[in-house]
Design a protein that fits this description.
VCBS repeat-containing protein; about 500 residues; 6-stranded mixed sheet; alpha+beta; 5-stranded antiparallel sheet; signal
Amino acid sequence: MKRSLVAILIIVGTLLAAAAASASTIRAYIAEFTVSPTDNGNLKNTLQRLLATRLAGDGIVTVDTPAEADVIVSGSYTTLGKMFSLDAIAKSTGGKQLSTAFEQGESMDALIPAVGKISGKLKGDLAKQFQATAPALPVAPVEVPSKAPRAEIERPAAAQEMVKAPSSEIVHNEATPGWISQRLSGVYSGVATWGTKEFVAADDKGIHLYRPGAKLDLVTEVILPDRMKILALDAMGPEASGRVLVFVTIMDRENISSRIYALQNDVFKLVAEDVPYMFRTIAPYGGSKKLYAQQMGRTDDFYGDVYEASIVDKGVKLSNPIKMPRFANIFNFNQFRDQSGKSYLTTFSDSGYLLVYSDTGEELWRSSDKFGGSETYFQRRDWENERTNMTPFRTRFLDQRITVTEKGEILVPQNSGFFVLGNLRSYSKYSVVNFVWNGSSLEEKWRTKQSQNYLADYSYNPASKELILLEVAQKGTFGGKGGSVVRLLGIE
């Protein structure tokens, strides 16, 4: 009887705590800005994104539609001579005015700081408004009989911990102290590993083999023609002979022209070039790593199914197609199973939300926060885009890898501190988040301590239980090349 009462109190307390946490979250929709006298370079969308990223946080989340929102924020940008005025107003969904803010400046250099000041004013006002109206929800105390056997109090103790820790609290994992390289000159975009300490990294010049030691030593490299842009870097091996295969997904002008190298005895040997496939190595279900390939269509950036791939006579053989659900492509998917063996596919939406699909393609779950986030992109000629936006090319950003561990847990990066200016993205901090599937949704188990750098790419080594993290410490500018570092972090 006592155990039943304790269980009921725990459930009630947990539900009330969850309700309180939900009530404290303000959902804000940021409408497109009005720009006067005319829009310049799609500025209305840029201002909308800038304000959305700066307003999010500290109890405020941005949503994609007004129907989801508690607050609707609209703004305007007006130029008068050399001066500009940036104005914003926040209203409840019922039309009540909650906050107003404005800033002015003399040049575009002052625009981003102005957006930051406006978001700070709105955030403070909204927090005060909603704190004043939010009801206080009591959390039921949980009393466990002190004389109960240990087996009876283990589960209530765990439930008590759930009540004490609200869902918004970040719980860091006890990561093994990691190794960090010296600063590498340039902005790196990709990293690939194969179970040893060595790894290959990519920048805008080519691919480079590094060996960690007292410092990171450059062993060998391949420099690619300037017209080629590396989109992705993957590796598999080593084979019995010691050979490692390195797959370089390359955009040559507007076409995929990938290369495959064999790495052996510290030498890169070209196996195949001008390969019309995009590559990615994935360990589905947390098992052995497999190579996958997908084509790029004339109009579709990602065309058709994703196939398992193998190298045959310097060519690529495709088999076992996987039909991609909406939003999924070769760069942003993985598969996992629940305890009963049922299969699921996880991917990112175009907006960065983490999704889970059933094996029949039905969407089962969608995250409330955005994850992933990448600055790697390619551009393709788009006549429709030119007619509507006066821009001859469309820009497509790649997504981050999703990793499934041997335990069936899901590792997902989360870049943040994001702003957009035209077709450029910029992130300034990141964490790696571990999720577990509870049968109906993904639950956060832990996350790494937030780093004040942008995570360009990462790899997971299941043998050593380490993350190999490729960070951009300084973005490239007109006056400098930028800088990158590689961090090794144990996660168990």
